Amino acid sequence: MTTPQNRERPIVLVIDFHHARGPEIEFCIADDGVDPTAGNDWSLLPFMALSDGAHASTEDFSYFTLCRTETSASPATSLFGISCSRQIDSSRLLYRPPDVTRSTVQKAVVVVTDNPTSLGQLREKLSVVTSAWFAQRDFSDFDILKKFREGLVINFLNETDRLTDSRLGLSLREMIHEYKYQTLVLFKSLLLQPKMLFFGSRCERLCLIQFSLISLIPGLINNMQDCADPAFDSYAQTVERPTSLKTSERSSLLAYMGLPLQIFGKGSMFGPYTPLQQLDLLADYGTKSYVVGSTNSLLLQQKDRYSDILINLDEDSVVISSPSLRTALTLSPADRRWIDFLTQIINETWDDAHPEQPKTHGYMGSEEFIRLQFEEYLLALLSSMKYHEELNSSNTRSRTQLQTFNIEGDPALEFNPEFLALWQTTSNYALFKSLTTDSLLFSIVEPRHPCAGGLTIDDIQRRLSQQVAELHLDDRVREGREALNKHLAIGQKKVSAAFNSFWSDIEAMREAQRKRNEEKALHSQQPSTTSAPGLPPSSAEPATSTSAGISGSTAPSWFANRKAPSVDMTQAQASVNAVGQKAGAYFSSWSSWASDKRKEWQQEKDNKKQQPSSAASSVPADASSTPSLSVNSPLPIVTELTTTTTTTTTTTDHPDRGRRQSMQHRREGSLGISRSQSRRKRWSSLLRRRESEDFGASYRAIGDDADPPFPKSPLSKSEIFFPASNDTSEPHNEANRAAPGGGPSINADLDTEDCDAKHPPVKIETESTPPREDASLEKRTSDETTPEIMNG
């Protein structure tokens, strides 16, 4: 450790980023006649001052370490630097040097000192000076920087107590609030001296968290003269073993307990910001451990090579690559209970507006409270470790002496036995052991974990509550509610806008319609002289109406692009006339059918009245044996005479079918006589055929082996039987006799109201009569199915 006479006075430098040569030292302000850049190897200083990514921010700070070579007056030691980098548009400069070819100018002001505890105060002063220097817009004027260096020298000479802690910017509250129980993991890993790599995109935050972690070891930040180079080991060679103890003085107690633990001794180094140009030093065989930081993501791709523990500040994660180190850094139940208690206090006193101090402005949760808790934890660890060594030693005298302290068991096991075994192999523990060989530290500090004891229900409940709190359910629900309300408001606005647009379109359409109506009325009131010459006044109206429609279509409306359909009035009138004719023909056919039906019913009543007299005169003697033919005899037979081949079929049609066909025949003029007259003619023709010889032969041709159904006497039989035969093998030329007068063949339709359902309809066709346009007539009934003899 250097004496006050050998201390280095503050040095101020200016680092410029040249577009061709890169970062370089532009100007240095030091003691008269001394050039520290020439006597020391500070070739990497420009790369440390201008960190990677500094151009992305308006103002950025970087912390780094430098080596001061050995001289005749002072040994080699470590120096600490802080830089403030800013940038300005080159167009704003009052004097633009010729080598400035880019649109922006980036420079950094650096202060180098041998006291890391003053970095907090230097940060605020350096920020103000750098901002004022850039505000001049003339980088050739260094008066502000020279006066700034003079003020730093005055403060340096008036500094009486170097051990005064000024930790501005090193917030332990923020670190514990972000990392929680992992803060204790990082603290214990620092004692194991692994290769710790911190990564983050913000250089200032990256450096400050490393200083915060180092400051948790009491007295270490004031004894870091060997941290800049792994080859330095002046502290271990110059430290003296304390011979006295003053319990009233904190510094005496810490020294007697072997503090500070020398984390950065031989083979170790500390670089808050380490550029890529120093990777060779990190990979050197003589470098066993280090704590460094980097903003370059290339190191993440080679994290297994350059780190045992990777702390990613952007993701708030701690990755331990070594399995043995991971086991040793596992927190015991007592460790977890202790750090949970500390985290709970900080969370209860957390203030988002001022995270560096508790919201109660009290001692609980403050920076000093946190440092005191870690100091108590470390002293308990050292005392328990010393008792653990004495307990496991082979000296019987020491065991007898230990019984007088009435200490139960081995309190060191509360700190994780794997951690203790690995810690005993480090260089800082070796130095601690050499400084406290004969000291009974457990007689000064109680060898007991601050939160000793096994895992309890309270520990589980505390951990569960912390994990639930880490989920931030209230914040998420609040954010979700706010997002939902925002979306609802936006949706309501959109719906309102849509309805407003809809109604505005409707109003525009109404307005356009109103204008069209007004134009039509205006054109209709104009005199007839406005019409075309040679045309009547009425001929001008369609043109006026068309023009009004065309002009109205230009109004902003939903139907603006639709054309009015063209209407052919001649075709429409023809369609209406055709429909009217069809409807008239339909109703006239029904009326004619009704009148014919009425006449038919009247004729049937007359026939029933004549039935008794005609039946008495026509009954023969052998009526019991031969069926007779009467007027009211149910004959479900229709005989139709045509020129085609005689066929016999059995069909049953819908009752209305005969009506429609009959009406069609009447409309076409196929029946020239009334229905009553045709009925009488058919009956007379049938009676004449029965008397003839040919009727039976014609029927036998139809029925093959069937007996003749009709005898020669038309009145001697009481029943006529026609067998239903569907097979017709030969034509019948003389089956019927032509109607009187040489007319067409007659269809015999008999009334079938009282007809028995067992007689199927039979249709008989002959070739004796010439063909006609309508070859068939139907026999109809009022309520039952009409049997029909169809052409086969």
UniProtKB/TrEMBL annotation:
Residues 513-522, 597-609, 653-669, 755-783 have a biased composition (Basic and acidic residues). GO terms for cellular component: cytoplasm. Residues 10-451 form the UDENN domain. InterPro entries: ABL9/DENND6_dom, DENND11/AVL9_GEFs, Tripartite_DENN. It comes from the Eukaryota. Residues 513-557, 597-792 are annotated as: Disordered. It holds the Pfam family Avl9. Residues 523-532 have a biased composition (Polar residues). Residues 537-557, 612-628, 642-652 have a biased composition (Low complexity). Belongs to the AVL9 family. This is UDENN domain-containing protein. It comes from Penicilliopsis zonata CBS 506.65. The lineage of its organism: Eukaryota, Fungi, Dikarya, Ascomycota, Pezizomycotina.
